[in-house]
Design a protein that fits this description.
CATH topology of the largest domain: Dihydrodipicolinate Reductase, domain 2
Number of strands: 14
Helix content: 25-40%
Number of domains: 2
Structural class: alpha/beta
Strand order of the largest sheet: 8-9-10-7-11-12-13-14
Number of helices: 9
Bound molecules: NADP nicotinamide-adenine-dinucleotide phosphate
Low-confidence stretches: none
CATH superfamily of the largest domain: Dihydrodipicolinate Reductase, domain 2
Length: 329
């Protein structure tokens, strides 16, 4: 079987994890091209992963990269333009979260994917991890009954460098789009679109949200409490409380959770240990490859409509906390 040929855009931390994880995919994969920014780090990346062609211009990468599919892992504000050009050239795309910085951009990308009949998926890899699949199965089997509340927090003490993408408004900085996207994703996945959203944030001098606290309220008697922070590290599990019991996704729940705990109110706790090879990005990669093979332009597990709902929700949160990426919007 011929290997699937990947083009990689971005050479940062998650791109390294993604490429390292390709060995675990259930079919042969090859990275044939990389598009970088800084010459030295791009050449080092190409050397480390045996990538034959390194490019520094998107046009040339697209014209000469000879790839079957592109993976994009650059700062958020670059996603829109890079995804757009790939789709216009009918190159299927897996793009890191958040797919775009606002709903308008996301709609345009989805419209372009449809017009070009070309696959597009947001790299919300959590959706494909064994831990979340188990949680979804326990909930759909009715183990904890109707969900009453969900608590999810993600905090990372980012290095205090105003030039880093975490704090730079021009690169879509802020805790919500980087970290808060995971708690928001989880609430939307398990509980759907809230009827009311309340959000507050602490803003940096540059005007990005260093911390963000969000409350989702549902008219059917459910709520979610969601937090993100670039100023402090939280090591909390996710807690999903239902009418019959609770489910905990142990920290780090947003990547390699060590286990899922089920505690029924009238029973003994049960722990499901979790373990898998590598980082775990290959679960989403396998979904991308299966969709492309089946000539789908979107994943049924993470459809375009879901990405649109997620960014619409984050636009609302951002407007309540007064964060704007005005140079891009
Ligand atoms: N799924 C996940 O778990 C996960 C985890 C982390 C991040 N992410 C997402 O992935 C994206 C990247 O995050 P990261 O942590 O990997 O960031 P990072 O370490 O800062 O890497 C960003 C990379 O983009 C490169 N770059 C900048 N401008 C570019 C351009 N015009 N063309 C090509 N490459 C360019 C940078 O190159 P230079 O260093 O040379 O400037 C750097 O290699 C973000 O959107 C983030 O939200 C996802």
């Amino acid at each position: 079987m011929e290997p699937v040929k990947w083009g990689i855009i971005g050479t940062g931390s998650i791109a390294r994890e993604f490429v390292s994880d390709l060995v675990f995919v259930n079919a042969p994969q090859q990275v044939v091209a990389v598009l970088g920014h800084n010459k030295d780090s791009t050449k080092e990346f190409a050397g480390t992963f045996n990538i034959p062609h390194a490019f520094f211009e998107l046009d040339t990468f697209i014209a000469k990269g000879n790839m079957d599919v592109a993976y994009i892992a650059t700062p958020h504000t670059l996603h829109y333009g890079q995804v757009m050009q790939c789709l216009q050239h009918r190159i299927p795309v897996l793009c890191e979260k958040p797919l775009t910085i606002n709903e308008t951009q996301c709609k345009e990308l989805v419209d372009t994917a449809r017009a070009a009949q070309t696959f597009l998926m947001e790299g919300m890899w959590l959706r494909f991890l064994p831990g979340i699949r188990l949680v979804m199965s326990l909930i759909s089997k009715g183990k904890i009954g109707k969900i009453v509340s969900l608590r999810a927090s993600m905090g990372y003490k980012a290095p205090a460098d105003p030039d880093s993408r975490y704090f730079d408004p021009a690169l879509g900085g802020g805790s919500l789009l980087d970290l808060g996207v995971y708690p928001v994703f989880l609430a939307l996945l398990l509980m759907g679109v809230p009827d009311t959203i309340k959000a507050v944030g602490t803003l940096s001098e540059e005007g990005i949200d260093e911390t963000c606290s969000v409350l989702f309220h549902y008219s059917r008697g459910q709520h979610a409490t969601l937090e993100s922070s670039l100023k402090s590290e939280t090591k909390l599990p996710v807690e999903i409380a239902g009418e019959k019991g609770t489910i905990k996704m142990l920290y780090p729940w947003f990547e390699k959770t060590p286990g899922i705990e089920l505690q029924l109110y009238n029973g003994e706790p049960v722990t499901y240990p979790m373990q898998w090879e590598g980082h775990g990005l290959y679960f989403e990669t396998e979904e991308v490859l299966s969709c492309i093979q089946n000539k789908q332009i979107e994943s049924k597990l993470l459809p375009h409509a879901f990405s649109l709902e997620m960014i619409r929700t984050m636009d609302e949160i951002r407007s309540q906390v007064n964060v704007s990426y005005s140079m891009h919007e």
